[in-house]
């Protein structure tokens, strides 16, 4: 890491050190306010998409539960004869049996959190198919210096990044 000059209150000519600290605090407050505004704006943009997705998850749960309860009512009727194929083996039904419990619902707090997180990641992504590659900053293992990925590109040669093996 590079050494950055620090402002120490009380150094230099008395009032200039205090005004420098006040300017730094004001700059920091402004930066935090801008970040808060950006986060609020992104939430307002993402919220309708999130509500649509949450409604679809709820609707899928509702339809699954409805099918389960309607299936119970139909069980009071006589069971249809078992279908046999040409070899005399039993043909499985078109729909598997529906098992509804709290463990296999789609619209849960955990799934809604995952949907919100995924939509935020998608909204703030920097790389798009067919677009230019982002020039992300990387930290070198020796010396902990910051450089950009595209600093390693040479001419028309493709740049290959190997992040190691996951196996």
TrEMBL record:
Task: Give the UniProt keywords, A-Z.
Answer: Membrane, Oxidoreductase, Selenocysteine, Thyroid hormones biosynthesis, Transmembrane, Transmembrane helix
Segments crossing the lipid bilayer? 46-65
Does S-adenosyl-L-methionine count among this protein's keywords?
A: no
Q: Where is this region: Disordered?
A: 76-95
* GO biological process per UniProt: hormone biosynthetic process; thyroid hormone metabolic process
> A single Gene Ontology molecular function, please?
thyroxine 5'-deiodinase activity
Q: InterPro entries, per this entry?
A: Iodothyronine_deiodinase
Q: Where is the composition biased (Acidic residues)?
A: 82-93
Task: One Pfam family, please name it.
Answer: T4_deiodinase
Entry keyword annotation includes Protein biosynthesis: no
In the record, the note on similarity to other proteins reads: Belongs to the iodothyronine deiodinase family.
Record function comment: Responsible for the deiodination of T4 (3,5,3',5'-tetraiodothyronine).
The name under which this protein is listed is Iodothyronine deiodinase
Instruction: Tell me what organism the protein belongs to.
Output: Neovison vison (American mink)
What gene, per UniProt, encodes this protein? G3XAM0
